[in-house]
Amino acid sequence: MDLSYFSLAELRNLQADISKQMKHREHDELAKAREQIQSIAHSVGLSLKELLDGAGRAKTGSVAARFRNPANPAQQWSGRGRQPNWVKQWTAEGKEIDLLKI
Predict the structure, then answer these.
(1) N or C: which end of the chain has fewer CB within 10 A?
(2) Beta-carbon contacts of residue 44 (< 8 Å; ≥ 6 apart)
């Protein structure tokens, strides 16, 4: 589209019309997206709030301890992640880790 033939007033009117049309389309597309998200939530049996809050997601938190330091019962380890120093020391001394099980 060659805009060089338009007057300044016509270009300003065109700009205002384009701005209105863009706002209208943004509104329509947001409404459509909301409907799609609502439909997805409904299809998996969740409310929109539950979907957005992450319901059904694996819960993170503490895991029960599986190993305890006999020298210091306050030191415990779940068996996940890096071994604590007291476990490393225990196994370095040639002792079985199974002896630490709770």
Answers:
(1) N
(2) 51, 56
